[in-house]
Amino acid sequence: MLVAGYLLWFGPYPPWLTESERLIARAQRLGSATFTAEGWRNADSKLRATMVADLIKRHDFVGGKYEAVTGVLGASTCYADYDDIPCYLVEGVRGGRQQLVFGVNHSDRPGTVIHVSLWDY
């Protein structure tokens, strides 16, 4: 009962992990391929999924402009709320589809990336 309550409250990740560490842990379930910008641009959604954890470790897009994201990853491959939010469809080996979304500020710092997340598709 205690474990079930813990999982319902915190999810599968310990509460002391940062948001970035939780994202990396979640992305590592998709695979562990090394990220390269050229490899990402030439890959399909399944191969891209295996690069997500390494991408997040190598690049800190938070605080930068969305153009920096598209400069490295290329044009968006999906849509997430607004046209200027970079979004990339990734697909796990078991067929689970997700969107790698770079949330962008639309108020006091327009165009600034404020978070990175994986959305279930």
Number of domains: 1
Largest sheet: 3 strands, antiparallel
Rg estimate, integer Å: 15 Å
Question: Which stretches are low in confidence, meaning pLDDT under 50 for 5 or more residues running?
Answer: none
What is the element string, with H for helices and E for strands? HHHHHEEE
Category by helix and strand content = alpha+beta
Strand order of the largest sheet: 1-2-3
Shape summary: globular
β-strand number: 3
Tell me the number of helical segments per DSSP (H or I, 4 or more residues long).
5
Mean pLDDT: 86
Distance between the termini: 31 Å
Please report which band the strand proportion falls in: under 5%, 5-15%, 15-25%, 25-35%, 35-45% or over 45%: 15-25%
Helix proportion? 25-40%
How would you describe this structure to a colleague?
The protein has 121 residues and is an alpha+beta fold. It has one domain (2-120). The protein contains five helices and three strands. It has a three-stranded antiparallel beta sheet.
List keywords for this structure.
globular; three-stranded antiparallel beta sheet; 5 helices; 121 residues; alpha+beta
In short:
This protein is of the alpha+beta class. It is built from 5 helices and 3 strands.
Write the SSE topology.
Layout: H1 2-10, H2 19-28, H3 37-42, H4 45-58, H5 66-73, E1 87-91, E2 97-104, E3 113-120
Antiparallel strand pairs: 1-2, 2-3
Helix pairs in contact: 2-4
